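Q: Cation/H+ exchanger transmembrane domain-containing protein, please. Structure only.
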Amino acid sequence: MQPAEIAILSAALFVFALVSKRAETGIVTPPMAFAAVGVLIGADGWGLMELHVTDAAIRRLAEVTLVLTLFSDASRIDITELDRRHAIPIRLLAIGLPLAMLAGTGAAWLMFPALGIWGAAALAIALAPTDAALGQAVVSNASVPHRIRQALNVESGLNDGLAFPALLVAASLAAGSAGDGAGAWARSIGLQVVGGPLVGALLAWLAALLIERAARNDWMDETYLRLSTLALPLLAWGAAEAMGGNGFLAGFSAGLVVAMRSERLRAAAADFGEAEGQLLTLIVFVLFGAVLVPDLAQMGWRHALFAGLALTVLRGLPVAISLLGLRLRPATVLFLGWFGPRGLASLIYLLILIEDYPIPGKDDITLAIVATVALSIFAHGMTASPLARLYGRSVGSGGTAPEHRDVPHFPLRLQRKP
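A: Structure for Cation/H+ exchanger transmembrane domain-containing protein:
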């Protein structure tokens, strides 16, 4: 980036910071604001930022942001504490997520036949993860029952990492990589999907052991504890990639182990997500507005229709099926079905598909994902506060309904400060 571009981004951040607390209860969310800034300063706006989606700087920023986000999200959630009380997110992840991938694959194959079945699957899987930060007012609004807020929080924290192995398989098959030799392809995929997480888990286990010991002996400064939450996922990423594993899955598995093994690291990782992680995320949304949104000029009706379906039917039906038998109110099922925003993970998965996989019909994948994320940023951002208040009134503030059952609390990616 040029100094002028950095100055523009910094000015946008400063101006939004001045009204950030007011914005928490309004309809303008940070992703909306910064995506709009990107559109204004991009090549199709004022022409102040001239970047291309294939620029190395964008790719590296996206990679670092993704590995830190996967680590930060996973480190917030101790999976050993997920029990029957967390039946909603467990079902959303174990049943709803695969069903959403299958439904999206079928719809994409019908609407974009040039993609083939595996290209359609890559599109559907890239859009499967949700981003609760796009509807922050929902997961932080006390009028929404705690169990429902935690369900969306846990789902969003884990589904991006869980979807990524499926994306690797579908994208490589769509690109014809398996045709070079099924055995070699299987070994490569196996090394990425299994080797990467093993490297991340081992490094995180060792890091947790060392940090807990250092903290007990009062050897470690709090500032450097926070810095270690930046170093650990990047170490896991780099080490896994050097060994032929997948660095993103290494970062995700490192976060899962940290959540189970070190309360200090877990708390420090949450602090990281509050500031540094948010900064990286907002920069990605600026780049989305500047670099990818202009592509929507080439969008056809199929891309727009698919975006609408992805945010409604292709999300809502799998959610409804996965929640059968839990005796939740219809309003709750609709609420959970609607608030599955698509954001950061889908954008970065798109960049990976563009750069690494020569998939036939890739332009359709690009336009469909960009249209879906753009629609989600504004539709979920604008409806988060009003629908959270409306839903909160409809279910009340207590009682014996399933929505009000007590569940363990996991931190949000962004904590609302009083």
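A: Brief note, in case it's useful. The mean pLDDT is 88.
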